[in-house]
Amino acid sequence: MTSRSTTAVERALRRLEQTEPHIRAWARVDADGARAAAARAPDGPLSGVTFGVKDIIDVAGLPTECGSTLRRGRVAAADAWLVDRLRRAGAVPLGKTVTTEFAYFEPGPTRNPHGLAHTPGGSSSGSAAAVADDMVPLALGSQTAGSLTRPASFCGVAGYVAPVGAWPTTGFTGLSPTLDAPGLLAARVSDLIAAVDAVDGTHAEDPAAVRALVWTGAELTDIDPAMHNALRRTVRALAADGAGTDGLGDEVGTAGLTEAHATVMAYEAARSLRAEARHPESLSTHLNELLERGRGTAEDTYDAALAVRDGARTAILRLLERVDVILAPAAPGPAPHGLGATGNPVLSRPWQLLGLPVVTVPGHRDPYGMPLGLQLVGHPERVGRLLGIARYTETVARRIAESAP
């Protein structure tokens, strides 16, 4: 009898054969390895689930190349912690998905399934596109700035960024230890919930009532009118259902947090990639500029940025004890046209610096049919409630989309 895992692998490979030449989401498809893994996969909560692995994350026996020629052919000896957890739950890795160079800004070849001339975002671009195109129901990503939230929004899928430090980054090629966090992408929030539960036992809590603070992000960047409309309609629908919704304002100091995030990221990246920096001719202009900035950042400037984070984290955690979530745009707008850039991560920077869990909620579209995602930011000790509210918010978003003329 054919197992559910074997059936899932064959179904995924057929889908890849049809659409991967157009989407180019995969750095390496391990068909033989996936078939072998399916044959021995345990019976678990994720049996019959195939998943993609962002190519900064180790899968035993496969190269981890990080979107760079400097890592070409470096084969991992063991699975990353998160890959191992998913395998233990019965899921089967199908291969490695495309990432930007060392999970920074230089784009790979991946295209957005909702518009092939549009970016899928970065740096978890291949993972988001593979899920959006129904190649796999689940994929692994990571976030240092907006590397998971943004592609989830652009590609119209659900995304989960774990609180910094909650999930080990063992087997990850990181950029900034203070900021790096693993995460997951799936077609719907309910699929994320099942995967998070399988990884660490967190159960989603259905909210009896929701208290949300609404943040537009307008003080950091221009927000597309379609995104403004999606946020406004969601807030109105939540309020009609009895949710409490107030404005966040700028009491958190998001501009200062954004600047501090950039300082921490550059300073730590210059040290994490010290060996690679000896080969500037093999690095993109984007990455060379980041590393140069990091090398030029004084230690006291770095310490001051961490102090900004520490003060703001105390304040935001106190705030998130009084309310459930912060509701905001996941990106400034829909995926920009063109494949030469990956979009603006600025709306994720404050929350990533603070180490908070984030769920990207899909469901909205702009007038041209391109996806628009909202993000929910929660308390790191209340991830179950965050996931439950995200599931509810997704039903609201889809209801709004279905009622649109």
Kindly describe this structure:
With 405 residues, the chain is an alpha/beta fold. It folds into three domains: 4-200, Amidase signature (AS) domain (Amidase signature (AS) enzymes); 212-248 and 322-403, no CATH class; 254-307, no CATH class. It contains twelve helices and eleven strands. It has helices spanning 4-23, 31-40, 81-88, 125-132, 149-155, 189-200, 225-240, 254-272, 285-295, 299-319, 349-353, 383-403, and strands at 26-29, 50-54, 92-97, 138-143, 158-161, 181-186, 211-214, 244-247, 325-329, 358-365, 371-377. Helix 1 packs antiparallel against helix 2 (31-40), helix 7 (225-240) packs across helix 12 and helix 8 crosses helix 9 (285-295). The longest helix has 21 residues, at 299-319.
Describe the structure concisely.
The protein is an alpha/beta fold and 405 residues long.
- Summed up, the domain count is 3
- Cα gyration radius (Å): 20 Å
CATH superfamily of the largest domain: Amidase signature (AS) domain
- Going by helix content, strand content and strand pairing, the class is alpha/beta
**Average pLDDT figure:** 97
Strand-residue proportion: 5-15%
Order of helices and strands: HEHEHEHEHEEHEHEHHHEHEEH
Instruction: Give the name of the CATH architecture of the largest domain.
Output: Alpha-Beta Complex
What helical percentage do the residues reach?
25-40%
Give the end-to-end Cα distance, rounded to a whole number of Å. Answer: 48 Å
Spatial strand arrangement across the major sheet: 1-3-2-4-6-5-10-11-9-7-8
CATH T-level fold name of the largest domain: Amidase signature (AS) enzymes
Can you summarize the main beta sheet?
11 strands, mixed
- What would the principal axes of the Cα set say about the shape? globular
Number of strands: 11
